[in-house]
């Protein structure tokens, strides 16, 4: 529970980016709705003071323009920090413009406390793309600005007694509601992150799933073609793996697979990607690696597996071997299947040649 609250109050960058991406459209729509509402509330100005309301039309329009600009920043994916900074500046400007509108109305400050409530409520609707702490600060700023304006003489006839009695408890309640929204958002984020992790991670070895490795290969192919540079693929298969299952059982086979994956991870770079393609067969993507270097990596993996005895059960220590097929991206490779198929053929050449060796696709 404590960790959950900490993540809400001090979220990591991944969650902040998630909020910006997933709530940006909602915030854009609510910002546009707010702009229309701010303009439409001029009718209330007219009810309070028909003569003075004419002097507030321009202020209402300027407020709407400021809010619409915020919606445009969200719509065109302007960086989050710049958008948030504009939201704070725009909120201050709109609140001051609203106070000036009240100054131009007879008894405006006494009749428009609902307007201050409206601005206090806005972060619940508009600022859903920012973390809770930012939204709470935004709300606190909106609540504290009218008393500051009254103290400096900008808000004429400001009701110092009525305002804190009304806006103080309401603002506190709104911050609690904002926190509840954030809990829901963070729970959804964690659920989606976990589902994605399950979808792309092999439960036994921790390597990527077949779908993950094919999707990653497609992205690496597109990157290699766009920016240049080679891309190589290794296909690895544990030799005589069926004997392990038949002799010591499937649990020993699982330990053997995990042991081989650990050896491979230790022998490749952080930028390389390993995925379980099926059974005891694995694919390793080597970005920015040409054919000769890929062959050296494959040989290093073969030696690492063959030179590391694995404990599969009490008093059962075996030394495994593996066969590997190597290929490199070619201009004629239009799909991932073509690239992986060539690596698979090279793998079977290695197995047919006697196993425990590396074969390079022609």
TrEMBL record:
<dbReference type="Pfam" id="PF20968">
    <property type="entry name" value="MASE8"/>
</dbReference>
<feature type="transmembrane region" description="Helical">
    <location>
        <begin position="111"/>
        <end position="130"/>
    </location>
</feature>
<feature type="transmembrane region" description="Helical">
    <location>
        <begin position="25"/>
        <end position="45"/>
    </location>
</feature>
<dbReference type="InterPro" id="IPR029787">
    <property type="entry name" value="Nucleotide_cyclase"/>
</dbReference>
<feature type="transmembrane region" description="Helical">
    <location>
        <begin position="82"/>
        <end position="99"/>
    </location>
</feature>
<keyword id="KW-0812">Transmembrane</keyword>
<protein>
    <recommendedName>
        <fullName>diguanylate cyclase</fullName>
        <ecNumber>2.7.7.65</ecNumber>
    </recommendedName>
</protein>
<feature type="transmembrane region" description="Helical">
    <location>
        <begin position="57"/>
        <end position="76"/>
    </location>
</feature>
<dbReference type="InterPro" id="IPR050469">
    <property type="entry name" value="Diguanylate_Cyclase"/>
</dbReference>
<feature type="transmembrane region" description="Helical">
    <location>
        <begin position="136"/>
        <end position="158"/>
    </location>
</feature>
<feature type="domain" description="GGDEF">
    <location>
        <begin position="229"/>
        <end position="362"/>
    </location>
</feature>
<dbReference type="GO" id="GO:0005886">
    <property type="term" value="C:plasma membrane"/>
</dbReference>
<dbReference type="GO" id="GO:0043709">
    <property type="term" value="P:cell adhesion involved in single-species biofilm formation"/>
</dbReference>
<dbReference type="InterPro" id="IPR043128">
    <property type="entry name" value="Rev_trsase/Diguanyl_cyclase"/>
</dbReference>
<dbReference type="GO" id="GO:1902201">
    <property type="term" value="P:negative regulation of bacterial-type flagellum-dependent cell motility"/>
</dbReference>
<keyword id="KW-0472">Membrane</keyword>
<dbReference type="Pfam" id="PF00990">
    <property type="entry name" value="GGDEF"/>
</dbReference>
<dbReference type="GO" id="GO:0052621">
    <property type="term" value="F:diguanylate cyclase activity"/>
</dbReference>
<keyword id="KW-1133">Transmembrane helix</keyword>
<dbReference type="InterPro" id="IPR048431">
    <property type="entry name" value="MASE8"/>
</dbReference>
<feature type="transmembrane region" description="Helical">
    <location>
        <begin position="165"/>
        <end position="181"/>
    </location>
</feature>
<dbReference type="InterPro" id="IPR000160">
    <property type="entry name" value="GGDEF_dom"/>
</dbReference>
């Amino acid at each position: 529970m404590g960790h959950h609250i900490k993540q809400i109050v001090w979220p990591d960058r991944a969650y902040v980016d998630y909020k910006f991406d997933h709530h940006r459209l909602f915030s854009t729509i609510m910002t546009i709705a707010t702009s229309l509402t701010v303009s439409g509330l001029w009718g209330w100005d007219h009810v309070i003071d028909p003569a003075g309301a004419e002097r507030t039309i321009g202020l209402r329009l300027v407020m709407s323009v400021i809010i619409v600009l915020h919606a445009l920043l969200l719509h065109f994916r302007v960086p989050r920090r710049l958008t948030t900074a504009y939201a704070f500046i725009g909120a201050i400007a709109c609140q001051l413009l609203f106070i000036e509108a009240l100054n131009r109305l007879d008894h405006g400050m006494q009749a428009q406390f609902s307007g201050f409530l409206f601005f206090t409520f806005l972060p619940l609707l508009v600022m859903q793309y920012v973390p809770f702490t930012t939204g709470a600060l935004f709300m606190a700023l909106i609540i504290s600005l009218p008393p500051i304006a009254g103290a400096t003489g900008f808000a004429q006839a400001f009701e110092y007694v009525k305002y804190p009695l009304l806006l103080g408890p309401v603002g506190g309640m709104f911050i609690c509601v904002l926190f509840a929204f954030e809990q829901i958002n963070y729970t959804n984020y964690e659920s989606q992150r976990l589902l994605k992790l399950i979808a792309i991670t092999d439960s036994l070895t921790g390597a990527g799933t077949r779908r993950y490795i094919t999707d990653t290969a497609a992205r690496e192919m597109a990157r290699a073609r766009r920016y240049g540079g080679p891309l190589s693929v290794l296909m690895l298969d544990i030799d005589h793996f069926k004997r392990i299952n038949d002799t010591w059982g499937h649990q020993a086979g699982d330990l053997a697979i995990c042991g081989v994956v650990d050896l491979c991870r230790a022998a490749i770079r952080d930028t390389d990607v390993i995925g379980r393609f099926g059974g005891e067969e694995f694919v390793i993507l080597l970005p920015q690696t040409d054919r000769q270097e890929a062959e050296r990596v494959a040989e290093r993996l073969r030696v690492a597996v063959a030179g590391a005895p694995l404990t599969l059960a009490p008093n059962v220590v075996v030394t495994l071997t593996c066969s590997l097929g190597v290929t490199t991206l070619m201009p004629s490779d239009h799909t991932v299947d073509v690239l992986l198929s060539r690596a698979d053929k090279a793998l079977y050449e290695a197995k047919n040649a006697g196993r425990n060796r590396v074969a390079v696709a022609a």
